[in-house]
Amino acid sequence: MAKYKRVLLKLSGESLMGEKQYGIDEKRLSEYAEQIKEIHNLGVEIGIVIGGGNIFRGLSGAQKGFDRVKGDQMGMLATVINSLALSSALGSVGVKSRVLTAVRMEPIGEFYTKWKAIEALENGEIAIFSAGTGNPFFTTDTGSSLRGIEIEADVMLKGTRVDGIYTADPEKDPTATKFATITYDEVYNKGLKVMDLTATAMCKENNLPIIVFDMDTVGNLKKVINGEPIGTLVHN
Ligand SMILES: Nc1ncnc2c1ncn2[C@@H]1O[C@H](COP(=O)(O)OP(=O)(O)OP(=O)(O)O)[C@@H](O)[C@H]1O
Ligand SMILES: O=c1ccn([C@@H]2O[C@H](COP(=O)(O)O)[C@@H](O)[C@H]2O)c(=O)[nH]1
């Protein structure tokens, strides 16, 4: 039986590239859809936020001379593209989803309200929250904590390409060691950069636990939902 009734799943835009250098890898996308279907079949209510790093990030744009606010808006639109792709992939495996957008852009998606999100979840649909918070200078990690808190999720699952939180970035430091559990304060005090500090602070203040795990290994999402101790649990 599933350990969690309602979850907020954060998917990395960058992971969606798979082996590619840019954009969406169809194989990775369909693996994600299959994994999500598996936990949906267990009766778990699922809200999803997907990043945009496979397409555009405002901060990188600003370093190349783009206006930061316009760059962030481009980044938010990138998350809408990924959300539509995920919704389409879920449809292909027979799972209904609703794309909700933080900025108005009907008919591409419905303008987000908490109540539409809850209605979708209670109807057994997956709610995909796109365009982040709708504001520049934020990230989809913060968008995830915000939506996770709003929908009263039991946990925020940060599915990424590393298998947890380490003493240093494991992609850069091969001697880094993994935490099984860690407090929000330790993440802050040790300056660990697995997700942005605004997101971590919001989860801490609102008591929303976070599990960071490797979403790119098929089967891991179900393990996390069943309470298997893979990844790193962040708590108060
Ligand atoms: N201490 C740490 N422990 C684990 N990962 C870390 C740490 N410090 C930095 N990282 C990095 O954090 C990244 C988190 O990956 P993720 O793809 O989720 O980032 P993201 O910026 O949210 O992606 P996107 O914007 O594309 O959604 C990993 O690439 C990992 O290398
Ligand atoms: O609330 C938000 C969320 C995101 N952005 C912009 O989108 C890109 C992509 O999001 P990632 O979290 O980096 O995947 C981000 O770099 C920002 O430019 C935003 O402005 N506001």
From TrEMBL:
Keyword vocabulary terms for this entry: ATP-binding, Cytoplasm, Kinase, Nucleotide-binding, Pyrimidine biosynthesis, Transferase
Chain residues that bind ATP: K10, L11, S12, G13, G53, R57, T160, Y166, D169
Give the transmembrane region(s).
none
Give, as in the UniProt entry, the pathway in which the protein acts: Pyrimidine metabolism; CTP biosynthesis via de novo pathway; UDP from UMP (UMPK route): step 1/1
Q: How is its activity regulated?
A: Inhibited by UTP.
> What is this protein for, i.e. what is its function?
Catalyzes the reversible phosphorylation of UMP to UDP.
**What is the protein name for this chain?**
Uridylate kinase
Native source species: Bacteroides coprosuis DSM 18011
